[in-house]
Amino acid sequence: xxxxxxxxxxxxxxVTEVAVEVLTALLPGLQIMEHEAGxxxxxxxxxxxxxxxxxxxxxxxxxxxxxVSSPARKVEGYRSPIxxxxxxxxxxxxxxPTRSLPLAAGRPDLDLLIVRENTEDLYIGEExxxxxxxxxxxxxxxxxxxxxxxxxxELAARRARQxxxxxxxxNILPLTDGLFRDAARAAGANYPQVAVDxxxxxTAALRLVQAPQAFDVLLAPNLYGDILSDLAAGLxxxxxxxxxxxxxxxxxxxxxxxxxxxxxxxxxxxxxxxxLLSAAMLLRHHWQLPVKADAxxxxxxxxxxxxxxxxxxxxxxxxxxxxRAVLAQLAR
Length: 332
Ligand code: ATP
Ligand code: MG
What we know:
The chain has eleven helices and twelve strands. With about 325 residues, the chain is α/β, with parallel strands linked by helices. The protein has two domains: about 1-100 and about 240-330, Isopropylmalate Dehydrogenase (3-Layer(aba) Sandwich), CATH 3.40.718.10; about 105-235, Isopropylmalate Dehydrogenase, CATH 3.40.718.10. The strands form two sheets. The chain has a ten-stranded mixed β-sheet with strand order 2-1-3-12-11-4-5-10-8-9, sandwiched between helices. A two-stranded antiparallel ribbon has the order 6-7. Helix 1 packs parallel to helix 11 (about 320-330). The longest helix has 16 residues, at about 10-25. It is globular. The mean pLDDT is about 95. One of its GO terms (biological process) is tricarboxylic acid cycle. GO terms for molecular function: isocitrate dehydrogenase (NAD+) activity; magnesium ion binding; NAD binding. InterPro entries: IsoCit/isopropylmalate_DH_CS, IsoPropMal-DH-like_dom.
């Protein structure tokens, strides 16, 4: 079994170090292939996603991705490597679960899954500007919408509540978001056991804050899925806890939802739970090792209920100390 590890920039490096240690403890035979990508790589080599990294990800079929910094302005030649990687590996569905964790502060009881389309929408990066007028292309295809919808319905059918809500803004964007909605409804016809409804993305944001328990699976185009999953993460205790797994044609990318967090990078205080829970998703969904995934998730839960946590959750553990505590808990 092989894992391509792309630590990336900022806290991506700190949290993947912990996740790799824990995965290696759970899977002693696991071969780790470390590769680079991201802003630092771009500054040094002129490319954000080197060929060798992509080739290794393809060969390993499993990727652990930390985080990369992307500049919030146009830099010639730079393209976000994670967006490129998801597209190159045809990881067309991004699974972003939010489940309550035992935290000190009172939080709503949450168990929802956002399934985000991962290859198109505004993320195709087709922008133009003459300095006065700027335009971006939002591309939605029936094919990509259907294939992500199938993943979402498949997962909804296996969950207790079997509910799926399609997120869109078809009142403003009837052609693009309307196509996404209609393709999703068509895919859903094969899953009569799943109760389907739909919400405008703004209403979904409101409901998520007011009554998040009402949601089971949310299916969303790329951009709305990104925004709503940060919202869900915020309700649940922050970005330090939010995992994701991108899946598609046999390759899986585990990646925390958070970015490179330049504000806390290099201090050794980043919360590694999001990366660890992403690793657990890799164990469960990609490697079909649910017992190991359960062991990892329950070790994390036990530590959090005992008040062992990083600073974002009000604790005092460093990134590495939390990692050591997980290893100790697993060894019990
Ligand atoms: P990027 O452009 O790479 O996404 P960002 O500035 O948007 O960087 P994020 O990583 O998205 O930063 O984080 C947003 C906020 O959440 C930051 O204040 C960051 O410190 C905090 N945060 C994110 N991830 C973690 C984590 N794993 N542990 C603790 N705090 C985190
Ligand atoms: Mg961010």
